[in-house]
């Protein structure tokens, strides 16, 4: 159900920003490595909830951001793929600084026909 509400939120954002467009052709979504969103689920929900809107044929593109930790002892940052504890000082006290993002990065639109178009 997580994906469904997230997909609804994407649609809201897209329709708000693409109000004057003829169609939305693509949506670029950034997801942190640790966000539990499943790309395929979002795309499936999309075809259902975007149906009948100008964004119904949009393709969703997903970018994954790797999780990054910051050691609270020495302040260095490192990828979660590295071994815990901190590779620099050995401390296990760390905080997650990136990796749980989920937001709309950009939208591809097909502009509405204006007078200046040929
Ligand atoms: Zn450290």
Structure explained in plain terms:
It is a single chain. The protein is α+β, with helices and mostly antiparallel strands. The chain has helices at about 1-15, 40-50, and strands spanning about 20-30, 60-65, 70, 75-80, 95-100, 100-110. A three-stranded mixed β-sheet has the order 2-1-6, covered by helices on one side. Strands 4-3-5 form a three-stranded antiparallel β-sheet, with no helix packed on it. A hairpin with a 5-residue loop joins β3 (about 70) and β4 (about 75-80). The protein is elongated. It binds zinc ion. Zinc ion binds next to loops.
Can you tag this structure with a few keywords?
single chain; 118 residues; alpha+beta; three-stranded mixed beta sheet; three-stranded antiparallel beta sheet; 2 helices; 23% helix; binds zinc ion
Order of helix and strand elements from N to C terminus:
HEHEEEEE
Q: Tally the helices: what do you get?
A: 2
The residue fraction in helices comes out at 10-25%
The set of bound ligands, ions and cofactors reads: zinc ion
Instruction: Give me the side-by-side strand order of the main sheet.
Output: 2-1-6
Shape: elongated
What composes the largest sheet? Answer: 3 strands, mixed
Write down the Rg.
19 Å
* Tally of DSSP β-strands: 6
Low-confidence stretches: none
- Overall residue-averaged pLDDT value: 90
The span between the termini is: 45 Å
Structural class: alpha+beta
